[in-house]
Amino acid sequence: MDYLDLLADLHKRQKRQGPGGEAETNKAIALANLDSSEPLKIADIGCGTGASTLQLARSLNAEITAVDFLPEFIETLKGKAKAEGLHEKIIPLVYSMDELPFAEDEYDVLWSEGAIYNMGFEKGVIEWRRFLKPGGVLVVSEITWLTIDRPPELHQYWETQYPEIATASSKIGILEKSGYSPIGYFVLPEHCWLENYYGPLQDIFPNFLDRHKNDERAVAVIKSEKEEIALYKKYKNYYSYGVYAARKLG
Ligand code: SAH
Questions:
Q1: Spatial contact of 108 and 133, defined as CB atoms under 8 Å apart
Q2: Which of 85, 167, 186, 242 is most buried by a 10 A CB count?
Q3: CB-defined site of ligand 1, < 6 Å
């Protein structure tokens, strides 16, 4: 197995593949002023095993196209949707987020939690814009600096991981420059990282290492996850995910 297969194997059994929460998905629904009585057409991009897709399906009268480029994540999502009786509201799709097969002006809402960094925030908000109806809403979570200054060790880590990390004002500025009117923003609280994401992930490290005995790449995967968790615990006052809602202009 290569590194990406191992990463997928580690994460596919998890409820979520990044920081977030059901209450926070609902908070973003409220921030974006989505009306639960109105039929909405939504795309959830980089949906993973569907934590947000399922919550959107529970909370809204929507048809949700759930897209991820990893087939095993989409298979898991299908099983969960069926088990909850939500499958008729969800269209699962294996596709890459930079080559989406959508039509122009197709969606009322584009949703993406903890995933747009894979193509880069700026490129993502510019390229996805055409899939939104005029007046449609983009809701996206993105890694964000919470302060203007930060310790050099932390700065260096993120410079190598994702140099587009920036403050909320900078992210909102990109939305404004890219044909959106910002509606609002909030910061994901600590429990979205520790209780909802890192905690359950840490619990499965021993089983993962056991299944991939003697594989040095598996050991490297866990080492890197542990470093990420330790860094978050040390520096959580300096960064989090910001959740941004913005309306398409024009
Ligand atoms: N939204 C989910 C998953 C976040 S993790 C959650 O919050 O739990 C990021 C997701 O993006 C993963 O599921 C990964 O498979 C997916 N991804 C990464 N690169 C992608 C690409 N190019 N196209 C589509 N999905 C991608």
A1: yes
A2: 242
A3: 16-18, 20, 46-48, 51-52, 68-70, 73, 96-98, 113-115, 118
Tens of pLDDT, residue by residue over 89-104, are: 999 999 999 999 999 9
Q: Identify each DSSP E strand in 53-131 by its residue range.
A: 62-68, 90-94, 107-112
Q: Is the pTM of this model over 0.85?
A: yes
Ligand 1 probe mutation, 42, 70, 123, most atoms within 8 A of CB: 70
**How much distance in Å is there from the Cα of 46 to the middle of ligand 1?**
4
> Which residues, in sequence order, are bridge partners of residue 137?
109, 247
Is 131 within 8 Å of 110 (Cβ atoms)? yes
Kindly compute the dihedral angle of the four CA atoms of residues 110, 114, 119, 123, in this order, to the nearest 10 degrees. 50
Minimal-distance CA residue to ligand 1 atom 22: 96
Closest C-alpha to ligand 1, atom 12:
48
- Using most ligand atoms within 8 A of CB, pick from 64, 74, 118 the residue to mutate for ligand 1: 118
Please classify residue 196 by burial: count the beta carbons closer than 10 Å to its beta carbon, then call 0-12 exposed, 13-18 middle and 19+ buried. Answer: buried
CA angle 7, 8, 14 (to 5 degrees): 105
Q: Characterize the bridge pairing of strands 132-145 and 239-248.
A: antiparallel
Q: Which atom of ligand 1 lies nearest, measured to the CA of 44?
A: 1
DSSP 147: S
- b/e code 19-33 from CB counts within 10 Å (16+ = b): bbbbebbeebbebbe
At 38, which amino acid appears?
E
